[in-house]
Amino acid sequence: EVEDKELFSLHFLHTGNKQQIISRLKNFIELYKHWADQQKKRGETGAFTKYKRAVKDCLRKIEICTERISEGIKCLAENDIVWKSFVFANKAMYKQRVSMALIKGSINNASEFSKKMSEPCWYPFQLFYLLMIIPDFIDSDSPFKDVVDLLWFPTGGGKTEAYLAVSAFIIFYE
């Protein structure tokens, strides 16, 4: 269960204070690392001992992902163009949600959006997918520059929005 729900708000991510957002992203990834450590302990005992090799492989991949996400957060903190591109990407995704509500007739004008509609938020995997990918686009020496990171979820899981976020970030960054 995600406790810091505001961290995933598209509105917060394009209007919030940079230092506060960076700090909260760092806190969240530390919680995730703690969860991964707990899974490692579970994998070494109990029912998972039969699958030790698979567990070890999955945990190593989680470790690589958390390192990449941390690097993405570092890029946001240290590079103003990256930060602005991230903010604009979140703003574009937010405005798209407002536009869809207007088109569907759910609201009569944009000012009604925050009163009548639920706050558009990222699923954690969407936000952290974007953060994981950022260093690969801005650093020509990234060891993951030539890696294609694909998401797999059943239909309706949020893949398209995650890919659109990456696309929006790249457009603004370029």
Provide a descriptive summary of the structure in words.
The structure is a single chain. This protein is mostly helical and 174 residues long. Helix content is 68%, strand content 0%. The protein contains 7 helices and no strands. It has helices spanning 10-15, 18-43, 52-78, 80-104, 113-116, 124-138, 159-173. Helix 2 packs antiparallel against helix 3 and helix 3 (52-78) crosses helix 6 (124-138). It is globular and about 60 Å long.
DSSP summary: helix tally: 7
Distance between the termini: 36 Å
Low-confidence stretches: none
Average predicted confidence as pLDDT? 90
Radius of gyration: 18 Å
Shape: globular
Order of helices and strands: HHHHHHH
Please give the number of β-strands: 0
Helicity, as a percent range: 55-70%
Classification by helices and strands: mainly alpha
Strand content: under 5%
Main beta sheet strand tally, sense and closure: none
